[in-house]
Recover the amino acids of this structure.
């Protein structure tokens, strides 16, 4: 048994380097990636899927849920960091370093607020997993995954750097100690044409 942390498939916002809104859907390529992701889990028993309630994560999880027929629920704590009024704007049009720890996006989450929410996410994940007999899939977003790993998990130095989060990449966490990463940002289920995508 394992906990699988997965990023959503590609969107046009990823492709065009735009801060996305909650209702940003998958691109055609993203839908293809979601199908490839589902196929990668054909031989893995998934008991439960918890998913961010944003459209792009729900669409990514749908083919996997169809194959697995597992329990499925939406969890708002798994949403991407909110950049408030900046959502919908291109990175190139924002005159600020939005990832600076001291930056507070207008009507959005500060880094401190975001980390506090990520800590609540991990508590929820562990509580969900506690009484399960099979594996748990957590479908979420790039910045959430980065902070989950940074704050709560153990990454071997030989693994890829944290900046290398591709769409639909899979991070497998040891289900026994719930800390050790067994596979980090694994996107081998994708072909070379379907690995592009931005951070948020």
């Amino acid at each position: 048994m394992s906990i699988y942390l997965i990023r959503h498939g590609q969107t046009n916002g990823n492709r065009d380097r735009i801060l996305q809104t909650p209702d940003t859907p998958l691109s055609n390529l993203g839908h293809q990636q979601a199908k490839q992701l589902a196929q990668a889990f054909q031989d893995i028993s998934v008991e439960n899927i918890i998913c961010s309630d944003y459209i792009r994560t729900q669409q990514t999880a749908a083919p996997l849920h169809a194959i697995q027929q597992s329990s499925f629920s939406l969890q708002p704590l798994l949403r991407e960091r909110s950049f408030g009024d900046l959502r919908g704007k291109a990175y190139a049009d924002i005159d600020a370093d939005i990832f600076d720890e001291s930056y507070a996006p207008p009507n959005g989450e500060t880094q401190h607020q975001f980390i506090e929410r990520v800590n609540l996410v991990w508590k929820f994940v562990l509580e969900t997993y506690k009484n399960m007999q099979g594996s748990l899939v957590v479908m979420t977003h790039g910045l959430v995954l980065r902070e989950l790993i940074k704050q709560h998990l153990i990454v071997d130095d030989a693994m890829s750097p944290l900046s290398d989060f591709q769409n639909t990449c899979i991070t497998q966490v040891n289900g026994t100690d719930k800390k050790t990463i067994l596979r980090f940002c694994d996107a081998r289920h994708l072909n070379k044409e379907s690995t592009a995508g931005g951070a948020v």
